[in-house]
Write a structure and sequence with these properties.
Largest interface: B-C, 50 and 48 residues
Order of helices and strands of chain C: HHHHHHHHHHHH
Number of helices of chain D: 10
Helix content of chain D: 55-70%
CATH class of chain D: Mainly Alpha
Radius of gyration of chain D: 24 Å
Order of helices and strands of chain D: HHHHHHHHHH
Number of strands of chain D: 0
CATH superfamily of chain D: MetI-like
Oligomer: heterotetramer
Chains: A alpha/beta, B alpha+beta, C mainly alpha, D mainly alpha
Distance between the termini of chain D: 45 Å
Strand content of chain C: under 5%
Structural class of chain D: mainly alpha
Radius of gyration of chain C: 24 Å
Shape of chain C: globular
Strand content of chain D: under 5%
Number of helices of chain C: 12
Largest sheet of chain D: none
Chain lengths: 534, 542, 316, 296
Amino acid sequence: MSHLIDVQDLRVSYHSGGRVTEAVRGVSFHLQPGETLAIVGESGSGKTTVASALLGLLPTTARIDGGRLAVAGQDISHASERSKQRLRGRVVGLVPQDPMVSLNPTLSIGKQIGESLLLRHGKRYPGLDADVLELLEQVGIDNPALRAGQYPHELSGGMRQRVLIAIALAGEPQLIIADEPTSALDVTVQKRILDHLEQLVRARGIALVIITHDLGVAADRADRVLVMRQGEVVESGIAREVFSAPSHAYTRDLLAAAPAFGATPKPVPVETRGAAPLLEFDAVGKRFALPRGQHFQALQDLSLAVYPGQTLAIVGESGSGKSTSLRIALGLEQPSSGRVRFAGQEIGGLGWKQFRPLRQRMQLVQQNPFAALDPRFSVYQSVVEPLVSFGLLKGRELEQAARQLMEQVQLPASYLDRLPRELSGGQRQRVAIARALALKPDLLLLDEPVSALDVSVQAQILDLLRELQAELGVAYVLVSHDLAVVASLAHQVVVLKQGQVVEQGEARQVLEQPRERYTRELLEAVPGRRLAVA
Amino acid sequence: MRLQRTLASAAILLALGLTLPGCSPSQPDAQAASTLKIAFFSDNTQLVSIDPFQVYWIEHRVVLRNVVEALTDQDPQTGQIIPWLAERWEISPDAREYTFHLRKDVTFSNGEAFDAQAVKTAFDSNKAFAAELPSTFGATYLAGYDHAEILDPHTIKLVLSKPNAGFLQATSTTNLSILAPESYRKSAKERSLGAVIGSGPFKIEHYTPESGLKLVRREGYRWASANVQNKGDAHLSTIEVSYVPEESVRNGLFLQGKVDILWPRVPFSEVDLQLLQRNDATIQSRSLPGPAWNLYPNTRNERILADQQVRLAVQKAIDRKSYASTVYNEAFPVVDGVYDVTTPYFRSQGTKLAYDPQGAAKLLDDAGWTLGADNYRYKDGKRLSLVYNLAGKETPGDVLIQDQLRKLGIELKLKVQTTAEWAAANAAGNYDLTFTYMTRADPIILQTVLDPRSANSSTLATNTYAPAVLPLAQNLFDAGLTATTPEQRAQAYGQLQDLLIDQGSAIPVYERVWQAATSKRVQNFRWSAEGFAFLNDIEVKP
Amino acid sequence: MSRYLLGRIAQAALVLWGAYSITYLILYLLPGDPLSIMLSASGMEIDALSPEQLAKARAFYGLDQGLLERYVNLLLGVLQGDLGQSLTLNRPVTEILAERLPQTLALAGLAIVLSLIGGVGLAYLAAYVRWQPLKVFLARLPALGFSVPVFWMGLLLIQVFAFGLGWFPATGSVGFESLVLPAVTLAIPSAAVYAQVLQRGFIDVWREPYITTAFAKGLSRAQVQARHGLRNAALPLLTLIGLQVGNTVSGAVLVETIFARNGVGRLVQEAVLRQDIPLVLAVVTVSAAAFVLVNLLVDLLYPILDPRITHAPKVT
Amino acid sequence: MTVLQRLIPVAGDAAPWRPRRRLQRLFDQAGPLLRRPGFVVALILVLFTLVAALAPWLFTQVDPYATQPSAKLLPPSALHWFGTDELGRDLYTRVLYGARLSVEAALLAVGLALLSGLGLGIVSGFIGGRVDAVIMRIVDVLLALPGLLLALAIVTAIGFGTIPVAIAVGVGIIPGFARTTRAEVLRIKTLPYVEAARLGGASWTSTLLRHVLPNAWGPVAVLATLDIGAAILATAGLSFLGFGAEPPAAEWGTLIANGRHFLITAPWVSLLPGLFLVLVVFSLNHIARTFEEIQR
């Protein structure tokens, strides 16, 4: 048997509280040594369950109901813990999803890598220290001798992910499972790390299974892809073939929804000539005081203007100052320098009370729809809250307004009665948008509005936002790290890097003919480019 | 190397195994045989002191009885005063001058001689201390003492400024014991913590408050009083006293044989008694001289108990027989008077203390207290409710009385207080019923409780009597105090006891019997007149 | 670092002073005149004395000062290391404490050690065991541990281990053996708290992704638990140990009464009843100082156990 | 095509929307709980105790205070389920009547601590800054004072009896509530939905009342449930030291404490009330932990 992995008709279900959920329903695939396979799917597709099963690390509530799951020729579907343990590390390695929480915070990273080496080479392995340094160097960490003694919290996310790769490599496995390996990282970092991982794996002839929701990642990196949906494989094959000629409707839908592939809808152009800007930043800067008289310059010299009915996007990676600028616009932070005007009115030094009337015209849609709604409030309570706070409507009128808002965000009125936990992520974001629209604002500030959502849901929300703009003539300030999202919504783009403006201008011009190197880097880092370009 | 070590340890074990049986029967047992272990209940935490003059805590007086000695002793059977450190004495006809002829062979444990000067030092030091702290307990024994005259090295005359018929008995108590002059050179605080040097058969080795104390035998002791059978050195070499507040732990220690004498303040309950007897313990009992455990009413300020009929109804409503058998045991004596039976001049009150619910109900009905719907009695819309102040946690006995009174429609409110609050309430008269007791083998002790002129709490003493009765009682106290013949004393105290019961001014509840359980090892446990033990008579068998 | 330390010590001193003052205030509000207690202690009551005699007695006990005057004097004394004179025991408080404190320290010390061993051991076992009935049983055991009144547990232990089996002495203050039962009694509630918190810690840590990372390395369950689970799960425990100091003192009051041990706990209980203000103040100050000190130590120890926490500004 | 025209037709949308009742929501939440046998048993015991505390005469016809010397220290039997005490009173009845005082004291203590702790925690967490620093130092001081000593001092200061004991115990558990509330307020204060409410024009007060408090309530309620058990134990400890209810009424601690003298000769006098107390406290713990597990 030359298959490194051979999965036949695998069925896994979760049992908790008397309920049974079938997570994987008859999945079959195989993997050759040295091959790269991408398992693609949205949340709930069962892709993570498959990865856990391959590692023999299914949670105690999971049960393998049937099928065969062979790793390196050994069926581990009903194997003992001991035999599964022997496979882990030395046959199958793992690069986990979120590097921020996947390293033990109380052990130095050198020790954590060393642990894998000791498992591989035995307790008295003499080359331990040298190997740790070598691995750190190989995964691209500067100054390995210093880093080995540091703790995870002293490292950036990208570096932590590299350490995790080093840990996986230390066991010299035949297969590495990378579970959404870079979704928590900035795009440029994401690209560099994936490139690095790919190169390391290739050089050692290690097979790679990438678990991802991102079609772009799959398209760029995999030899073969497996598209999963609700526990079943809908399509599989050579990556290039699947993406160029998807046979299943779901794959087609996914491709259509993914902004990186082809037909991204473009924003409706808006005539702004002669109009007065709604929101205006004039050389705005923000300094935060640090202990011991030090300062941190979060934002420097930002000037921008948002016109009614238009979308301005602020793009940047973490630490770029894009959130700070949003908070300044909302009056949650005071600018250290420069002026901020809303509808001609200076809002820089306004107190909470003075700002309050303006809030009717300016609302925020937050990043994480899962935390943006009070878990105890019904949808109705959440949606009408601003109306109640401002005392605008009462009784039946309030109820009618709620129905209308639900219509606007395309949710059935019966959902008004639901609690947030009874809604999906996309539905929650619609509720959050409805709440923001309740006061009929002129300007909506969108803070990464779709980053927490699945690809197909992202597309729907973006559609909704575009339609609302056309319908209501509301202006948007969109803050995002995702250039594809920006491209589908923005008229104007500001690119920020470490608090400084890198590039600024018409969206078409900035995204299609970037003048600055950083902007180009950002664009290239968007997954799926390789395939799209090719 | 390793083997060597193993061999070595095996050898040590072997050696231990061989030597242990060889030495154990002789040495440790001989040591144990002359050590007596006593477990009392808790130490006095209010007044930390074993200075004989200050001590009222009877557990301390038990110990002191065997460390320090007095001029005279008292016969436990007859109550007669008999010679001890004084061979004989004369009392002047006006009972103001007491001339004591001292033994000449007595020394204190520090080597100092016992002589007239030592006695004078003792009495004068005590007088000085009483002047400084008039509240101290010994002051009542010393009442009336003016000065001492040394007639010769072994004859001393103690002169009183006013009559004190109890003075001779006072000279037999631990409180007026004669300490070595060295003790009086030390401060009262030092004496309180153990600097007590006496002429007794034992010496205090150390005293740790709330933990325990240790006595060791004094060699060359030759001057025991007639009460003691053993005229020479004590049989025991060591006595270890520990204070164990938890009853079940104390009992357990005794049952396990870790303690030879189990000596709690409160008599044994029936179940404990049976348990102890099943385990071959001997129960030693003696009524403590002094007032019985009485309740004292507050008859003033138009309180409910101002009505003599109500007081007498309470007197009849208490089932003393049932109290004795329920709270303690079937064999427990039923209280029969104001004093416990061991007090000289005790007079039985016979049927006056009998349980008579019908009589009580009739008295209450006649007094206008009628039963209400809730089975309590009411008069003019006011409930027959009596406040009974307790110093510390209630006992089962208190609750039993509460229920007995409830059956007659009298509500008894048990008010648990700290000793401080209790004392304050007594002084302020904020009570209907309260209690107090003192131990001394002379009826004069009642003056420290019920004679407003010399009582610890004059308010309590005054409140006990209806206004008209107070002078009568004081006359009787005076008659008892100034009496020069036993007959006069008997008459005065007899009348006083009758008066207190007939007036309902003292409501006896139970006889204050002191019980100790002694293990099979302990031989010849005997009580002194005041309810203490002659520890130099005790022997322990292996 | 030193600046942090100074601030932290100042804060500790402030807390100590607060504890002292609150206690003084409460004690001063106690009903009844301390004099009448002391007089009644020696068999005499206050109404039996003439005013001159009263004044004399008041001066004898040093009670002729006002509320504030006495407070200031006591506080000044404390600052000079003099805790004053016990009103009823006739001795300097420092002397009494020197005599009683070792007893309680030994008891509390052993109890803390036992409770840690017991609590951590139980939680560790509960986290390791996978047979569900046993796991559930072990998980519920701590709740039982602090559902039982301390004094009752003490009496039961005495009945079983002292009187029934005869393994340990029931009372006494001599030797290590007499320390075992009281320390176990005192340790049980704390151990239960530790076990429960640690169990919760294990449950939380067990869900952490780094545990998956550790498993994926090929470590066995026991290795994962020992190397990656325990330390992270035990971090909340450290704070708790500091907080348990107060409970241990409270427990000592009961335990020392039951086991007839001569420690500070019993001393202070009786001192409260006697209104021996200097003595109570001293004991409260000492136990508050212990509390503050232990918590200070915990704070300083934290960075060693958890590298994420640092009191020094980061040097980058 | 306007947004309005693009309405997704959903079955049942035509039916007028009516808000679900709170009660119904409660039932929806309680459903899974009632399937746990341990929880149900614990709940029944606690409810039984509560009812007994309100109306003990429902479960027993005997007078709890009537002494009967002839029937003293009888072992448990069909007539006397828990046996009788040293004065012949029925212990089962006394335990039920004792529930009244114990539960009252515990609820009072926890209520007091809850109110003041909640107040302190909210003020501290919400206002922050100096106020926070001062309040937290006060809480530290309360923490530094050993609970039982504090309670002893308070009880001697304000007198014996159920209510003073409850106050004393309550003061001792204030710090826990203050700290928990503060931590929760601080956590929830920064959550996006609170920010959203503020940006939606809500005042701090209404944000506090509508968002922060209801969401902070969970852990505090768990703590309260746990502390009812702790308060019962603390009261028992004080009764053991002699600071209990006014006799002849006896709360559980007094029953256990009084019965301890008969541990060798009549163990049930102490053991059965003790067992009952342990079971109630254990049940409260179990309920609290179950709630906690659901909240996660």
